[in-house]
Write a structure and sequence with these properties.
By secondary structure, the chain is of the alpha/beta class. It has one domain (2-275): Rossmann fold. The N and C termini lie far apart (50 Å). The strands form 2 sheets. Strands 6-7-8-3-9-10 form a 6-stranded mixed sheet, sandwiched between helices. A 4-stranded antiparallel sheet has the order 2-1-4-5, covered by helices on one side. β7, α7 and β8 form a beta-alpha-beta unit. The protein has helices at residues 40-47, 70-79, 95-100, 109-113, 119-131, 147-160, 177-194, 205-211, 234-241, 256-275; strands at 2-11, 14-24, 29-33, 55-60, 63-64, 80-84, 165-169, 197-201, 214-219, 222-227. Bound molecules: adenosine-5'-triphosphate (ATP) and magnesium ion. Adenosine-5'-triphosphate (ATP) is lined by residues 11, 14, 16, 34, 36-42. Residues 11, 14, 16, 34, 36-42 line the site of adenosine-5'-triphosphate.
Length: 276
């Protein structure tokens, strides 16, 4: 349903994405991991046409979406909603208006000026907020909410577009572990219940392992791993992140050390079994 073929983006002499290729045959939940500067955000931005690719193709339902212009390009951008680390809500506006904001381009200037939304849209927005456990917060200003709550509002806003694909760029990087879990569970549930594809840039290995069906590892703009969470072994993680000190507890809550501990534990168990 979706093929990325040799997708490349250069900024001057710097190649941010280098012939990135992968294909998805069913709506999966895909995690993209890699160290800072690996090209993860650039990849997502090219997929929804926020950034123009230098070369390559992105085939979705038989069309190369990189060639779309005007209305067709905007329709594609509406089909693949973007969620950002910093939520990008309008802080002083109430929650339900934030969710309804994406419907603005469908309405007249007068209706927009007076903040008049069709009742059916308001009901839909409340239903979506309810799905995310946020309906009670609908009248509050966005700025009055916690980060996790704001991100759930941002997900609700994305769902209001009824997208086929949700692209999330580090959706939990600004959240504490509790809120991070709530937001990842919300994304997973949307994926499972609605059959929407989710592609999320994630900065922690354990999040990718826990919530994704497939993990793509990027290094220096290139795909260096593409497989299941089970195939993401310690050695592979080292290769993706590089074996230097930048791969730290701070960058990923499942550190190499933790993986090694579990590998070591597995070895001890295997040895114990062998001696029985
Ligand atoms: N607009 C831009 N102009 C010039 N260089 C850019 C631009 N955007 C990204 N780059 C460069 O492209 C490379 C990839 O950047 P990108 O933001 O995609 O990485 P990332 O994997 O998302 O990193 P992070 O984990 O820090 O968000 C980096 O070297 C970056 O400096
Ligand atoms: Mg990024």
């Amino acid at each position: 349903m979706f093929s990325v073929i040799k997708l490349t983006k250069t900024f001057g002499a710097n190649t941010a994405c280098d012939r990135v290729s992968f294909a998805v045959d069913a709506p999966k939940m895909i995690g993209i991991i890699g160290r800072s500067g690996a090209g993860k955000s650039t990849l997502l931005r090219m997929l929804n046409r926020l950034t123009d690719a230098t070369s390559g193709e992105v085939i979705h339902e038989g069309r190369d979406i990189l060639t779309l212009t005007g209305t067709a390009k905007r329709a594609w951008q509406s089909d693949c909603a973007m969620i950002f680390q910093q939520f990008n809500l309008v802080p002083r506006m109430d929650v339900v208006s934030n969710v309804l904001h994406c419907t603005l381009n469908r309405r007249s200037t007068l209706a927009t000026m007076f903040n008049l939304y069709p009742t059916a849209d308001i009901h839909r927005a409340i239903d979506i907020l309810d799905r995310l456990g946020m309906a009670a917060h609908a009248p509050k200003r966005a700025e009055a909410l916690s980060g996790g709550q704001q991100q759930r509002v941002a997900i609700a806003r994305a769902l209001m577009q009824d997208p086929k694909i949700i692209l999330a760029d580090e959706p939990i990087a600004s959240l504490d572990p509790m809120n991070a879990q709530v937001v990842m569970e919300a994304l997973r549930r949307i994926h499972e219940e609605d059959g929407r594809m989710v592609i999320a840039n994630l900065h922690t290995l354990d999040t990718a392992r826990r919530y994704c069906d497939r993990v793509i590892g990027m290094r220096d703009g290139r795909v260096v791993f593409d497989g299941t969470p089970e195939q993401l072994t310690t050695g592979v993680a080292r290769d993706i992140y590089g074996a230097d000190a930048s791969f730290s507890e701070e960058a990923t809550s499942t550190s190499i050390e933790a993986l090694e501990r579990s590998d070591a534990a597995a070895r001890v168990i295997a040895e114990a079994k062998a001696t029985v």
